[in-house]
Every structure is written in C-alpha cells, then in structure tokens.
C-alpha cells in the first residue's frame, strides 16, 4: 500500500482521550481446546520457564478464572494481556514473569491461527502512513499531561534513562542521557538542532540551556506541543505539530529519540531520506531507538491494540538497509539493560500517583498500564529487545569519531 498523500497528514483535531476498549465477547478458538487440555499445555510451557500455575513464588501465575488458559492458547499475548486486564489472572511480579517467559522463548510456542491476519497486515500494509501516524498521538501521548508528569522525571523524558554513569535517581538518569546525546552530537553554541519526535521538548530544553543551541522539534501530539512550548518559554525552541515527512530545511545536528519505533518498515527509507536532506553535509545525526533481535517477528498484538497502535520495532539489519548509501555509521551504543531500570522507576511513580487518577481512568486502565510497564521491563531484562543509539554522518567524519566518556 502506497504512502498517503502528505497533504492529508493532519486529521481533524480532537481532544478526546482514548481509554482501553471494553472486552469483546470471548470468541471460541479456531480449534476446540478443552479446559483441561489448555491447562496441561500451558502448564508444560510455563514449566520450561520455571513458572508454576497457582504457585507461591513472586513470578508464578495465579489463575482466577479457568477460562484464562483457553484464552491464552487461542489468542497468545493478546489473550494473556486482555485476561490480565479482566482480572482473570495475577502475578506478584509481572516483570519477573515476563523475564522468565521470554528467556525461555515460551512466547514462540503459541502462534494462534486467528492472528495470522495481524501478521500479514504488519508485513504487507503500510500501517504508518501520514494519516495513520496521528493515531498514536491521540491514543497514547494525549492521555493527559498531568498523568505523564506524575509518572516521568521532572523534565518529562519518555525514553530510556542512562544509569551506567552512576545515576541514582530517575531524574539523574534522564539528565545523564540528555547530556550524553548532546556530547555525542558535539553541540556548540549557535548550532541549529532538529529533534524529530520531540515529545515535551526535554532534549531541546536541555540543549538550549546547557549548550547554547537553537532547536526545532516536531511532534504529532497536541498536548505535548502545548505543554512543551510552555516549559520552554524564553528559550530559542520551536515546536511544530506536523508529520516528519514534511520537513525540508537544513540543520547542523539532528536527533530522533524514541520516534523510529513509530515509523514502520515501509517508511524507514523515507525517514532516512528526510534526515539526510535536512542534515548539513558536515553534520551529525543521532538515532535513539528500541530494537528487536529478529526480523521475522510481527508487532505484539496486545501492544498494538492498547498501547502503541501501528508501532513496530526495527532490527539492526533494517536500520542498515534504510540508511545504506545515505549515512555512515560512526558509532552504535546498546544500553538496553538501562531501560529495565527506567521502566521500573516509571512503574513506581505510576503506583504512587494512581489514587489521583483512579476515579477518572478506572480499574481496567490501571491493569492495562501496569501490564504495559512491567511486561516491557521484563522484555528488556530478558534481553529480548534492545536500546540502540546510532551516531550517523553523511560522508564519514574526517579523523574518525570518538564516543564521549560516560
């Protein structure tokens, strides 16, 4: 499917906050699986991950509804996540549950037939067209600024912190990450920095305050742009509510932090071409993205439905394919293990702040968000997914590139 005309990039503006859909009537699996058969199958799979059904250890799975196992066998992680949201099962430490499951590759043993369409759609369709790109802004990032202010650090940085340099708190880890990016970019006073997918502007604000640069950031979230502009008042920082594909001006440096996951394989090359045309010939482009280990996997259907619609993680090979002939890879830094700690810090803040949001958002949202944060923490702990920072140049930096010390 071809990329949508960019003139149609912005849909009608809406302030409606998306809440998790109510559970649809449970559909029987394609093939009949008895409750006892599903229980045996699930118990055998989980045993490989050292997880017991109704066990007493923190990572064991406690069953509240016997139908949950049929639901999981039929629908994989979509069924597992929705069953958790519906209070059909529990676990004291979801992060450890998922770390065990993913290290043992249990998830690869369930490939339900009814999700084949989801896999085909991910492979064949362009799910991240200019029009569809706005869906994630409305569903995920526009939940409300107060919600994210309560969960994130003081700068509202919704990407992996950098703990490896000795940070002790979330605030310290996020400032360490922002400073590391600025040093990797070699920012100097008077430079112009483009931030593709700027969020609330934490990188631009930090770079303007500490490195004397002027910044332009693009985002697809109205709430992010509004609050970001307010937080950056008085600084040479500009927010633009637009699709990245519309960018066409030169910058000394470009950063994209936590945006590439929303671009999609059909658009990777276009994304790199946009960065290439906007970067000065002697400039540096830093790409910060979560990535997956294998190309032959499809987006998690639960995450796609409830958290990041149309999101998809790239592989090293896909980044190489997209950037080939456009950029030279000067440096590649993997600190994915730091995302585990970041997510656990977000979860602690979320739990502490939840009483303020419970009446508005409801119990099912609480279960959904908890599942999201802790399952992702478990995935990073298991090293099932990674966090990469690429430093890219157009022609290769004369004399080579040296990564700054942590």
Q: What attributes characterize this protein structure?
A:
406 residues, 13 helices, disordered N terminus, two-stranded antiparallel ribbon, Rossmann fold, 9 strands, 7-stranded mixed sheet, alpha/beta
Q: What's the short version?
A:
The chain is built from 13 helices and nine strands. The protein is an alpha/beta fold and 406 residues long.
CATH architecture of the largest domain: 3-Layer(aba) Sandwich
Record field, number of beta strands: 9
Quote the beta fraction: 5-15%
Radius of gyration: 22 Å
Assign an overall shape.
Answer: globular
Residue windows where pLDDT falls under 50 for at least 5 positions: 1-19, 21-34, 112-123, 132-138
Strand order of the largest sheet: 5-4-3-6-7-9-8
Q: Say which CATH homologous superfamily of the largest domain is assigned.
A: Vaccinia Virus protein VP39
- Give the overall pLDDT as a whole number: 87
| N- to C-terminal distance | 43 Å
Name the structural class. Answer: alpha/beta
CATH class of the largest domain: Alpha Beta
- The run of helices and strands is HEHEHHHHHEHEHEEHEHHEHE
Question: How would you sum up the major sheet?
Answer: 7 strands, mixed
Task: Specify the helix fraction band.
Answer: 40-55%
CATH topology of the largest domain: Rossmann fold
Number of domains: 2
The DSSP helix count reads 13
